[in-house]
Amino acid sequence: MTNFVVLNQSLHKDLKVNTTRSEMYGDNVMHAMTFPLEFRDIQSCYPIFFSKDSESGKFYPTALFGLEQNENLFLSDDGWDATYIPMMIKRHPFLVGYQDAPDHDGGKKAVVSIDLDNPRINEHIGESLFTDGGEATEYLSDSIKLLESIHKGHEHNKGFIDTLLEYDLLESFTLEVNLSNGSKNQLQGFYTIAEQKLHELNGDTFDILNKRGYLQAIFMAVASHSRLRTLVDNKNALCA
Amino acid sequence: MTQTKNINRIVILGGGSAGWLTAGVVAAEHCAGGDSAGLTDTTITLVESSTISTIGVGEGTWPSMRSTLQKIGISETDLITKCDASFKQGTLFHGWKTGKGDSYTHPFTVPYGYNDTNLADQWRRFRHQIPFAEAVSSQNSLMFSDLAPKQITTPEYAFNTNYGYHLDAAKFAELLKMHCVENLNVNHVVADVVGINSNSTGDISSLIIDAGEDVEGDLFVDCSGSRALLLGEFYEVPFISKKKFLFNDSALASQVPYSSSEDPIASSTISSAQTEGWVWDIGLPTRRGIGHVFSSAHSDEDQVGESLLKYIERTVSSEAASKTAIRKISFSPGHRAKFWHRNCVAIGMSAGFIEPLEASALVLVELSASMIAEELPANREVMDIVAKRFNDKFLYRWDRIIDFLKMHYVLSERKDSDYWRDSVSSESIPDSLAEKMELWRWQSPWHRDTMHVDEMFPSASFQYILYGMDFKTRARTANRRSDFDAQNSAERLFQENAQRTKKLVAAMPTNRELINKIHTYGLQKI
Predict the structure, then answer these.
(1) Which of chain A's ends, N or C, has fewer CB atoms near its CB within 10 Å?
(2) Distance, in angstroms, between B507 CA and closest chain A CA?
């Protein structure tokens, strides 16, 4: 369960965040939402697919870490073995919350919230949130910047997905994974860029996609599929 | 070679759900194609009066409506949000057997493993432990819990369990009209028809309207409602009454608001047998359509009105019952002697009407329209052949509908009024039904009872009604090879169905939750 409260310097001055990557801290996730603004880094480590939000049915791009629920093939006793950790993983235990604020646009203002029930939180090990002088630590400042990027990323995703749907560029797929020990896994419920349709687009449409800033993201998502090899290799190593 | 007259101009008279659905189905096939050089375009013109109001009581569809709408090109999100529509997984019957607390379902999903195994025979051993529909279908449990047949992540028109809709027929006609006119090139003429021109052969050549030029056509589709302006009034094709089989010719209808915006929306049509007929209860997102069907020869209208109000008091609130406005609807149960005569074909109430016990009205429109779309005669010479095929097919279908509806009454043990006593009199039972029911005492309905590939009620539907009503098919007295095979797979199938049911009940949102989400987020197309 989660227990998000607005971050408060005097209440939370002694808290530390354990940034160790481990199943104990909930890092054993199969996939996590990602954003075009980090696609360049994501595609160097993970395949990018699309999933549907269970609450709204809306699509979002997601970085794949495992081939079944609760499986993260990058996670071992030594931590998370990849050169880049996705923003939505790094953000824990923080979240952007919204407070009623009549003088702000839309009557809401963004505030930094912290999940007090997150197992990373303690008073002994990890990164401090505030200095003795009561200033935000570099860790906290970076985390706040991360939240701002995520906030922008959400907005960006909406336009990205709308454009993909407008041009019919998403399709569902089923991936058969044959492991070296002879067992078969099926990856279902994800969506991907419809490459055939992508190649049939005319120049004007490419121009539109480019001007909207999504063309590069589309091709990076396509290129990221070669990272599936890493997942299968890791899975084979596990099963060996 | 004689000069043939091509069929290029279709005129539809009447703009209710029958007229616009027909326009949509035919136009999607004939008017929305690409340009092929040298071929003629088919034109469709729909003439509707601005003064005649359509009958809208809240209607149920069959699952076939999903593929019909997909073909027409209407998004399911639009259907749900613009037609006040909700999901229907079948019919939930109360009180049909004894009237003393009995209930059963007729789900839209066929029994588990139906292709290969007849579970009805295997269920017989467990008949005292578990109702038939619950043993063979996951949908039964979803229906009793007002759950939805899919999730917000399920794409448009796809399903976890098979479903149709409950919808506001007037809004439905409006959505179809917009789509037909804006996207499918259907010409829309608002005018009253004041006369009909025919040519020397007796074919209709044009409709004379009160505002504008005559509307000429090669094929005229009569969707003018029970008046049957073209097929009935002009051609005088006789009406065949079916009242001797199905007595109901009247209904008292009402629209009842929910007590709160969080009340469950039933995901089944609820059909509750009463002393003087039965009550339909159709849950739309914003209101319930509740009505009492009865036979004017058997029952007094005031008495029926009272029993309708009692139903509303019991299932909604006494406040709702005291406020409700009741509208009387009269109809003649039956159909025309034929539906396609010369160059005129009737669809909808102009073709016929029967009590809405299994929601057969809109599906007949879909079937008629799709047969016209597929078999649109190339020219006047072959039209009579197509007409004959059409008439044979739909006369057969009407007979099967009557058999199937009548069976609901024949299986009842109710004796609490002349209405129910007369319903089981032998002269009120069609021979075709009596014969099948005699056979089913010795063998359960199975694939051979589905005589045609496009049969309206497959053998599975007969199974659900028969065994839901506790009909007894005897166990065989001689060994059969196939029984051994079935016994072996039955246990596994029953277990798998139970597991699947558990999963679905846990995973499905309520009908209301899903509809609210669709209003907020829409459904994805993929």
Answers:
(1) N
(2) 11
